[in-house]
From TrEMBL:
CDD domains: GGDEF. It comes from the Bacteria. The chain crosses the membrane at residues 6-25, 37-55, 61-82, 89-109, 115-135, 150-174, 186-210. GO terms for biological process: cell adhesion involved in single-species biofilm formation; negative regulation of bacterial-type flagellum-dependent cell motility. It is an enzyme of class 2 (transferase). This is diguanylate cyclase.
Length: 387
């Protein structure tokens, strides 16, 4: 079964052009995730296939020498896109040297179709394998392991590697029985059919990867306090409900600490609001150093922070609260060469470990910790009070 090669080439050209245009519009000028390199690669691929399609009607130099160099530069552009996506250096000199070498080889092999097929098959296959190599190295990161986009991209690139190596092998060990790039046979049909599919699949994969990254960034923004980087109030409330449900299921205690900076207004009035902001970031750093990975720290509002301590009872939480109070006092904040001493008051509450306990609602726990905090303030500040 064979298909008309010029038709297949046209399909690749149109698909590459449309996808490239869509990517350029989608990307705008804002993002830096390599989409513009991928779009550039698709444009180069469209141009390369157009030149190959014109073989016989335009000079050999344009159709084959430039056509193959552009084909290789399309894959080089995909490689640059993936490197840019992962924040790796872009090796322009190596890329240009490869393209020059391909042009020279194609010129030297003017009358040897089979040799050209073998060499280009090997080069393009290896280039696609190089892109896979970058992805493999990065797959160790947590973000990539779960990425469905990366999986699609790997499938598309894998198809290119396989097809190009099979094409090179077919030309090397069997006769292709054709004399030009535009003639049809099984190998030609498979090559261009799979190239068409691989272009689509890998482009979808790369766009998904960019989208997944943007989604993650949005999720982070939606759950983070922009000033301190701690969880924001919305994320805190969500975590409180989740942890309460877990504590209830597993019959474990859950502690909640309300940490409030004492006389923070004076810090602002005396050192200025920027210094006040710096103190807020500083205290998050001090608190974080003493927490477990499962603890949740967030900014409840203004100069008030909330800490959720899973699997911790009132006694354990009170001990930690006292350590935190002392740590804050012992680590005054440095701001433009000045030391800004400050203290905190902490209210501690915990849900008991019996499922029927009425303190197992978020409102009850919050209210208890809040009341304890106000007692700590009333009793003179810089202290811990238990609910
Ligand atoms: N710099 C800065 N200040 C903030 C921010 N959010 C709230 N504040 C300030 O925090 C101060 C809170 O003041 P108060 O509620 O009177 O509390 P306090 O001065 O800490 O007194 P006590 O809590 O009673 O010890 C106000 O001056 C707010 O302007 C912020 O994001 N940055």
């Amino acid at each position: 079964m064979t298909a008309d090669v010029p038709t297949l080439l046209l399909m690749i050209i149109v698909t590459s052009l449309v996808t490239s245009g869509a990517l350029l519009v989608l990307n705008g000028n804002q993002r830096n995730d390599g989409l513009q390199y991928w779009a550039g690669g698709l444009l180069l691929s469209a141009l390369a296939h157009a030149l190959l399609l014109l073989y016989g009607r335009i000079p050999y130099l344009l159709a084959i020498v430039l056509g193959n160099a552009l084909l290789s530069s399309a894959l080089a552009s995909f490689w640059l896109a993936v490197r840019r996506f992962h924040g790796l250096a872009l090796h322009w000199a190596r890329t240009l040297a490869l393209l020059a070498a391909i042009a020279l080889l194609m010129w030297l092999l003017q009358h040897q179709f089979a040799s050209r097929v073998v060499i280009m098959g090997l080069i393009l296959g290896l280039q696609a394998a190089l892109v896979l190599w970058v992805l493999r190295q990065r797959a160790l990161g947590a973000e990539q392991q779960r990425s469905r986009g990366a999986l699609l991209l790997v499938c598309g690139l894998g198809l290119i590697v396989l097809t190009m190596l099979l094409r090179a092998g077919a030309a090397l060990f069997f006769s292709l029985n054709i004399a030009s790039i535009l003639q049809s046979n099984l190998v030609q049909t498979l090559t261009f059919m799979v190239s068409f599919l691989a272009t689509l699949v890998s482009s979808f994969g790369f766009v998904f990867m960019a989208k997944e990254r943007a989604d993650q960034a949005n999720l982070r923004l939606a759950s983070q306090d922009p000033l301190t980087g701690a969880a924001n109030r919305r994320a805190l409330m969500q975590a409180l409900e989740t942890e309460l449900a877990r504590a209830s299921r597993q019959h474990t205690p859950l502690a909640l600490l309300m940490v409030d900076i004492d006389h923070f207004k004076r810090v602002n009035d005396h050192y200025g609001h920027l210094a006040g902001d710096h103190v807020l970031r500083h205290i998050v750093g001090v608190l974080r150093q003493r927490l477990r990975a499962s603890d949740v720290l967030g900014r409840y509002g203004g100069e008030e922070f909330m800490l959720l301590l899973p699997d911790t009872d009132l006694h354990g939480a009170a001990q930690l609260a006292e350590q935190l109070r002392q740590a804050v006092q012992a680590a005054p904040c440095e701001w433009q060469g000045q030391r800004i001493p400050f203290t905190v008051s902490i209210g501690v509450a915990a849900s008991a470990d019996t499922p029927a306990d009425p303190s197992r609602t978020s409102e009850a726990l919050l209210q208890a910790a809040d009341q304890a905090l106000y007692r700590a303030k009333d009793d003179g500040r810089n202290r811990v009070a238990l609910a």
